[in-house]
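Appendix B, Record 12. Input sequence as logged:
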Amino acid sequence: MKCAQLFEGLSYTCLQGDIDTEISAVVNDSRKLSEGCLFICIRGASFDGHTFAAQAVSQGVAALLVEEPVQVPEGVTVIQVENTRHAMALVSAAWFGHPADELTTIAVTGTKGKTTTTYMIQSILENAGHKVGVIGTIEVVIGEKHIPVNNTTPESYDIHKYFREMVDAGCDAVVMEAYAQ
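Logged structural output:
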């Protein structure tokens, strides 16, 4: 997929390189870099992805998505956005073919009882003839597949990946735990 396709509907500036660069994967974790990927530089509590830009280039990334300019060789495409975490959600949706558009999404928020409520809604919908995926604090459920989760709230990339797997498995709905801010 080309960078330009990933950034449709997103406000960005191409600082260098070619917006038509072919992308082989979308990555936001420097430990998962791969040849030809788009590396999204995210500022976190402990690490700033921008500090890994040079390492990413040395490992063959095709493009970088940044909030601030980085010093990398001219052949690397560098796309700047206001907020890379927000952009990651839109880029991930595009990467996986906008699977959320194919699912009815039900989010459960609150202080207590979210997990129980998501499983109750799943059961009600399945008894009504729907195939339902679940994203929760304990696991992700896609059909008979149960995937343990490490983080209470998955990254947007992971959510879209799970949505794609759900659609591919025939799900028409997803129930997920959500946290209001």
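Helices lie at 3-6, 53-58, 84-95, 114-127, 156-168.
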